[in-house]
C-alpha cells in the first residue's frame, strides 16, 4: 500500500468573505464546493482547487470567526505550496503580488525547484513552486474562469512542510508506517538551522512530497487563523482505505476509523508530534451533487445534513 500524493490541505480562516476574495480573485483558484464543516455545521468549509477540484489540487478552509492569530512554532504544518507549470509563471506572480500588495519574498531555488514564498491576509504561509524541472505525479488543470492567464495558473498542491521538535519520531512514522521514502535534503531558509529533509511517496515529485523541518528553538505552535489544521494523503479507492484502517488497527495506531465525507472517504490519525493526517480517497468527487459547470455556486450539504438546511443557512453569513 502506498499513497499517490497529497490529496488536500485544510486550514483555518476567521473571515470566509475575505478568504473567498483572496483565493478566488487574487490566486485564481476555483471555489469547487461551498459547504459546512460536517462535524460543526455552524461554520463554512470552503474548497478551492483546479478546474474541477481534482484530488491533489484542493486547498480548503474552515471558517472559525473567533479564531485568534496563530503563534507560529513547532509540531505544525508550517507551509503549503502550490504548483505552477513553469519558472516564467513565478515572474508573473511576483509582479501580480507586488501590484496587489500581497506580502511575498523573492524567487529562490528550494529542493531543486524555483519557488516564490508569500502570505495571505491572515498570515497563512504559502509558496508557489515551479513544475518546470519536476518529475512525478501530474498536476491538475488551471481554472480558466479568473483573470490569471491559464499558462500561469495554479495547477495543484506541491510539497507540504512539517515543523517538528522530535524529528526522528516523525521520520520513523512517515517511513515505517506510512511508507514514505527519504529523497534528499536542502538548505533551510533560517541561518544555522538543520537542512530540510524531503520525503516522497508514490511516483514522487512535487505533488507527492512532505518536507520536514527540525527546530529546537521554537515554542509549540498555538493554532488560529492563518494556521493549517491537517494534511490529507491520496488513497486510490475505498477498498484501499479500508485496508489502511485494518493496517493501522493491527499496528495499534489510534485512528478515527472509516468516515464518509460524501465527496470522499477518510480516516484520521496523528503523527508522533500530534500533527493531524488524513487519508482520503480520490472519489466520488465534487460533481456528485452539483453539475461541473456550477460547482461552488450554492450551499451544498451532504444528505445527512439536508434536513437541517434552513437552520444551517440561517446561521451562516451569505457569501
TrEMBL record:
Presence of keyword Nuclease: no
Single GO molecular function: dioxygenase activity
Gene3D superfamilies: 2,3-Dihydroxybiphenyl 1,2-Dioxygenase, domain 1
Start and end residues of each VOC domain: 5-131, 156-282
A Pfam family reported for this protein in Swiss-Prot or TrEMBL: Glyoxalase
Domain of life: Bacteria
PROSITE patterns in UniProt: VOC
Keyword Ion transport attributed: no
Matches recorded under InterPro entries: Extradiol_RC_dioxygenase (IPR052537), Glyas_Bleomycin-R_OHBP_Dase (IPR029068), Glyas_Fos-R_dOase_dom (IPR004360), VOC_core (IPR037523)
Signal peptide: none
Keywords: Dioxygenase, Oxidoreductase
Name by which UniProt lists this protein: Ring-cleaving dioxygenase
Species of origin: Paenibacillus yanchengensis
Amino acid at each position: 500500500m502506498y499513497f499517490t500524493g497529497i490529496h488536500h490541505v485544510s486550514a483555518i480562516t476567521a473571515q470566509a468573505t475575505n478568504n473567498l476574495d483572496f483565493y478566488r480573485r487574487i490566486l485564481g483558484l476555483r471555489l469547487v464546493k461551498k459547504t459546512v464543516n460536517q462535524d460543526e455545521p455552524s461554520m463554512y468549509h470552503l474548497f478551492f482547487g483546479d478546474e474541477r477540484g481534482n484530488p491533489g489540487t484542493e486547498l480548503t478552509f474552515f471558517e472559525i470567526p473567533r479564531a485568534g492569530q496563530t503563534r507560529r512554532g513547532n509540531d505544525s504544518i508550517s507551509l503549503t505550496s502550490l504548483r505552477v507549470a513553469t519558472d516564467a509563471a513565478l515572474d508573473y506572480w511576483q509582479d501580480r503580488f507586488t501590484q496587489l500588495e500581497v506580502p511575498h519574498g523573492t524567487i529562490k531555488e528550494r529542493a531543486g525547484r524555483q519557488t516564490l514564498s508569500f502570505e495571505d491576509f491572515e498570515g497563512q504561509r504559502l509558496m508557489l513552486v515551479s513544475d518546470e524541472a519536476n518529475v512525478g505525479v501530474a498536476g491538475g488543470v488551471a481554472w480558466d474562469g479568473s483573470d490569471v492567464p491559464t499558462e500561469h495558473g495554479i495547477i495543484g498542491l506541491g510539497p507540504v512542510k512539517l515543523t517538528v521538535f522530535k524529528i526522528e519520531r516523525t521520520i520513523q512514522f512517515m517511513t515505517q508506517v506510512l511508507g514514505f521514502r527519504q529523497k534528499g535534503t536542502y538548505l533551510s531558509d533560517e541561518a544555522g538551522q538543520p537542512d530540510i529533509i524531503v520525503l516522497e511517496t508514490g511516483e514522487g515529485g512535487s505533488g507527492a512530497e512532505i518536507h520536514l523541518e527540525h527546530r529546537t528553538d521554537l515554542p509549540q505552535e498555538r493554532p488560529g487563523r492563518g494556521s493549517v489544521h491537517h494534511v490529507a494523503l491520496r488513497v486510490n479507492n475505498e477498498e484501499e482505505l479500508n485496508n489502511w484502517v485494518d493496517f493501522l488497527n493491527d499496528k495499534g495506531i489510534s485512528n478515527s476509523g472509516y468516515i464518509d465525507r460524501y465527496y470522499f472517504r477518510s480516516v484520521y490519525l496523528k503523527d508522533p508530534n500530534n500533527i493531524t493526517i488524513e487519508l482520503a480517497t480520490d472519489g466520488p468527487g465534487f460533481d456528485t451533487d452539483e453539475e461541473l459547470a456550477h460547482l461552488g455556486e450554492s450551499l451544498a450539504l451532504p444528505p445527512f445534513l439536508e434536513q437541517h438546511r434552513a437552520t444551517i443557512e440561517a446561521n451562516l453569513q451569505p457569501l
